[in-house]
Fold this sequence. Notes:
By secondary structure, chain A is an alpha+beta fold. Chain A is built from 4 helices and 7 strands; from the N terminus they run βααββββββαα.
Amino acid sequence: MVQDRIEREVLIAAPVERVWSVITEAEHIGSWFNDGETKVDLRPGGMMSLTWNDHGTHSILIEKVDPPHLFSWRWDPATSKDPREAASTLVEFMLTPEGDGTRLRVVETGFADLSVSEEDRATAVLHNVEGWAAELPELVEYVERLAG
Amino acid sequence: MADHAWGHGEIDGGGMDVNAEPDDVFAALADPTRQRLLEVLADRVEATATVLAAELPVSRQAVVKHLAILDRAGLVTGHRQGREVRYAVRPERLAATARWMARLAADWDSRLGAIKRIAEASEDAGGSGGRPAG
């Protein structure tokens, strides 16, 4: 079923504080997310400004900063519109200690609220084209069933 | 406008209702009755509202309303045959939305993988002493 929600998680062999740094500090964010300039005003209501060399700069509005367990922000993943002025999705990072490591869960919700054209979605940035390996099997199965 | 890039060319855009907002797909699928309706319709390939109502715990009138919403979202199509309209599933838009979501999910997998590598690498480099010496 196509749900208005993406949930992914990963188990990391590092303590929650370390993972928290990686997802909240500009020097790290620029290594796993964007590839250009990174500015972070780490507080609820603060902004992150992330630049992709190919796609330009995205404004991201920080909602919750609850170290080292919860970090959430809003953006428009399909365009670079400012989430303070346009519809956005909510991205939540949840960090849970597990053994000596950390389970990091990310949930993105609110796609139904995005008012983007199909062209916008087509050119939606930040895509790794080879990412097909991770397609959601239950969803694809459902679609294939409907396609008969 | 007959074909658009949203489906990345993998999906035949011919005949797709270009006026249907993709957002409608989520709204249309948010309702469990409509989900069930789509499944029943997919199994039957083609059916009238009367036939569908017989298989669902809702009235024919309700089925007609749900079909109208699914139609607007580009998820079903109907054609008149005699006095009744026969409906069929249109998988293109659903498939395109599913692929879009799958791609966004794949993006997150890729980012989480990068976060993991960075966190674990800095943990090694940090010399925390928590690991036995090689």
